Amino acid sequence: MAEAAVNIKELEKNQEWWRVAEQKRSKRLDYLRKAVWKKGAVGGLYAPGIKVDLERAGLFTEGYFANLNDPGMVRHAKAVANVLDNIPIFITDQAQLVGYVGSAPHTISWLIEGGSLLNEEVYNEPGIAPEPEAESLKKMAAMMDKWNGYSVQDRFIPYVLSFAAEEGVKLLSGAVGWGLPISISGYNGKDYEYILTAKRGFEDIIAEIDRRQEDMKDKARKKAGPEYLHVGSRMMNWEGMKIALQAVIRYANRYARLAKIVAENYETDPKRREELLRIAETCERVPAKPQRNLQESLQFDHFLQVVERFESGGGAWPSRPDYYHGSWYDKDVNIDKRLTKEEALDLVGEFMIRAHEVGSFFPRWTREGLQGITGTWVWTLGGVKQDGADACNDLTVAFLQAARLVRVSNPTFAFRWHPQVKDEVMRECFECIRQGLGYPSMRNDPVLITNVMHWHGHPIEEARTWVHQACMSPCPTTKHGFQPMRMASATANMAKVVEYALFNGYDPIVNMQMGPQTGDARKFKSFDELYNAWAEQLKWLMNLLTMSVNFGRVMSPEMCPRSFLSSISERCVESGQDAASPEGDRGNSWITAFTWVENIDSLAAVKKLVFDDKKYTMDQLITALEANWEGFEQMRLDFVKNAPKWGNDDDYVDDIMLKCLREAAAFSRVIKDPSGNNWPILPENVSGNIHYANIVRALPNGRRLGDALYDGGISPGPGLDKKGPTAVLKSCGKINHITDGRAFLLNQRLSPTQLSGEKGYQLWRSYMHTWADLGLDHIQFNVIDDTTLRSAQREPEKYQEVIVRVAGYSAHFVDISRKTQDNIIQRTVQGIG
Amino acid sequence: MPLCKECKKFFPVKEDPNKGDCVQRVVDPRQAYYKAKPVGASMDASSCSSFEKK
Ligand code: SF4
Questions:
Q1: pLDDT of residue A591
Q2: In this predicted model, what pLDDT tens digit does every residue of A162-221 receive, in sequence order?
Q3: Helix (H), strand (E) at residue A823
Q4: Residues of B with CB below 8 A from A87's CB?
Q5: Considering chain A, what percentage of its residues have pLDDT values greater than 90?
Q6: Residue A559 to residue A424: CA distance in whole angstroms
Q7: Cα–Cα distance between B35 and B32 in angstroms, integer?
Q8: Angle, CA of A518, A668 and A491, to the nearest 5°
Q9: CA–CA distance, A153 with A116 (Å, rounded to integer)
Q10: Rounded (10°) CA dihedral A680, A685, A689, A694
Q11: Scanning A368, A432, A536, A796, which has the fewest C-beta atoms within 10 Å of its C-beta?
Q12: What is the average pLDDT across A475-488?
């Protein structure tokens, strides 16, 4: 014991936090943490031993085709029910929470109904077909054949071709957008105010639907009229919702039964037997009935998340666990004292691990954009209650402490900072950041609540419930405020905007006229001419992406009905509509703007060196860019070093940033989402800056084809923020974080040495005061030194739990590509104070 | 022909003894767990390598 204590102190002194965590966490957490099979792809490849789950794919296929003639939502619900009733389930030793999106811990799920593009990738991916491989491949091929003509993609494409064939080809080129506008695996928001507040369990919802069906039948039979024309489809949708709810109750009961069988027939340790019987009791209770304690509340939530992913995948994990489970922590730990703090911490840590282990098959382009992780699962902590009071509670602190013990890269946290947050909570946030987790990212709650109201008209009480719908975008969790889905494909590779403005909309990488022909840039005589071309390309791209996503969303109830998601959403239970229907949804859209700052630095460089200083002509510049700067190295260095760069509190370039953002903001109000609401942009990258490195050609900021793009939404280019951290904040503070866009991602690297001790905390606090005073909506930190990162590159096996903030997410450093690792090392380490 | 219901790992469902769960202990390279999959009581167990007579 004494030896371990000495050891921990030494490790803390050396800031080897991942080793400290190993020593400090309970035996149970240590076992569960190490039991996880890594599902994120490493360098684009799945780790040895990871296999695609053929059980979900097979059972869904069987359930779907056995009920082919049923109405859409009923058919879909029966397919999901077939999965939930028959998929093998398991309970890991020492676990207290159960539920996994697959038939075994080493499997990743496969949404076979999505379409042939994904299925071909699954089939061709080396090493992931379960053993015996030949037999699995045969089975996979047979299942894939069945879906020909029935998959979401196959049914959706004819609709797209009917009106936008050319745009469809441009989207599929992969140059400007990300993914397909089909709703098979979007970012599913949830009506947590309806489902997680212990006011109802699934049995109550089933009873409520029965009442609604009776009521509608009655009314529709009594009075003919247009208001009841939809009665048939609504009745069927309700039927689908009930099938889904009943199936989930049976699924939970399967776990209860397994836990009991193990307790009564296999387990010899009385303590573990007791735990298994508690699991059984928990799964008999939830989600059929409302939760009564912390374990039941966490289990209820986890069942929601698992089943949602069986139904349709889920690229994100919108969640606010301290807010929705906090009262149960308080009851169990502080009031009833049925749990000690340590026991509660075990549950909280395991709750994170249960999410961390979930993984689904990603096509290669997604794996490159989301290196090392399985989705952008940013859980929201802190913030205010609907009445504006501080919402932080003891569970907020427990989550922040558990994060340091389990050190998972997914989920991560984002903390809703506001002026009432107590110092003890800020210290917990700081401790996570100082210990190199890269999270929580800090969000400015007053700014974002106003932003939510500004862009989409949510009333203030609703706006105050916001959670991260994916990495960054705030979305409420109420009946009309929650957004049931958002497709990843409203994601723009924005560096293409300035590229197309310089090359008349033509893209040699995909060999296509992509954007509009905005003129031969060699002949541009003024900066305004270039800017106008830029603005035209921007609007073209924003429209292309949103038009297709709008269409995909509206088609979603037909293409990919959501029986389960609908059944846990108040507005759907009330109306009998599919959750994806835009009716009753206030709207919460955003366009993710990858690679945004390249536009700003490029435009500033041309303005300065070509039009103001007249050092070069447009003709010379285009020639150099066409040559990928080869043979023009001196000139390139001039564009890197002697043109103003964003992030240095220099109005010359900062004004261009504001002009560009405001151009986008104005157009955001012209294009509309299916609810008639706005489409603001949200500059951030996941690891799109690496993914697009070989897709964006040379630009006037000095980049060459193949160079990594900048890493953050409004982060300065690596090494280009020469004037220190306050200058970065000042540049970013010129942006209006309410009206200029949806949110703005800022990465900062700080020195671990400088942040050590109480002095380090005080320095950070005062830095955060400046951040808040300047009205920035977001900031996240990497606090890790180059020596550790270089050592991790040399000996990755010794640094498995070293975490870095990549972009809107964190990843274990050893799980990202060498290029991304180098890009993180290159980021300027800022000294603060 | 051996049947699942004759196997130690078969646990019948009370309400319908024709159905049950095959419960097995699995130890993989990272973790150990108990796994259940639905099976029929009268399922042919002759090709099951995990069959254990009750
Ligand atoms: S499947 Fe095999 S192991 Fe399982 S119950 Fe049947 S015979 Fe026993």
A1: 95
A2: 888 888 889 888 899 876 777 777 788 999 999 999 999 999 999 999 999 999 999 988
A3: helix A818-826
A4: 37
A5: 74
A6: 49
A7: 10
A8: 80
A9: 7
A10: -50
A11: A796
A12: 90
Q: Where are the alpha helices (DSSP H) in A67-201?
A: 72-86, 116-124, 133-147, 152-172, 192-195
Q: What is the DSSP string of B1-54?
A: --BGGGBTTEEE-SS-TTEEEEEEEEE-SS-EEEEEEEEETT-B-TT-TT--B-
Check pocket membership of B7 for ligand 1, CB cut-off 6 A. Answer: yes
Amino acid occupying residue A780: Q
DSSP string, A568-622: T-HHHHHH---TT--TT------EEEET-HHHHHHHHHHIIIIIIS-SS-HHHHH
Beta pairing, strands A778-782 & A107-108: unpaired
Asked whether the beta carbons of residue A85 and residue B32 sit closer than 8 angstroms, the reply is: no
Cis ω before A181 (30° cut-off from 0): no
Closest to A745 in 3D by CA, of A441, A447, A312, A499? A441
Residue of A257, A268, A272, A354 to mutate for B, most B C-beta atoms under 10 A? A257
Dist CA A503 CA A622 (whole Å): 8
Q: Identify which of A14, A827, A803, A751 has the alpha carbon closest to the alpha carbon of residue A413.
A: A803
Does ligand 1 lie within 6 Å of residue B42's CB atom? no
Ligand 1 atom closest to B4 (CA):
6
A431 CB contacts (<8 Å, ≥6 apart)? A400, A404
B31 with A93: Cβ contact below 8 A: yes
- Name the DSSP letter for residue A125: S
User: What is the Cα A68 distance to its own chain's centre?
Assistant: 33
A75: its two tokens:
């058919």
Give the H/E segment covering residue A107. strand A107-108
- Using a cut of 0.90, tell me whether the model's pTM lies above it: yes
Please write down the long-range contacts of A581-586, taking CB distance under 8 Å and 24 or more positions apart: A581/A557, A582/A553, A582/A554, A582/A673, A582/A674, A582/A675, A584/A479, A584/A480, A585/A480, A585/A482, A585/A483, A585/A484, A585/A674, A585/A675, A586/A456, A586/A457, A586/A458, A586/A462, A586/A480, A586/A481, A586/A675, A586/A677
Phi, psi (5° rounding) for residue A577?
A: -90, 160
Interface probe, candidates B15, B16, B30, chain A, greatest A C-beta count within 10 A: B30
Among A425, A404, A364, A257, residue whose Cα is nearest residue A43: A364
Q: How far is CA A403 from CA A29, A411, A431, in A?
A: 11, 9, 10
Is ipTM strictly over 0.90? yes
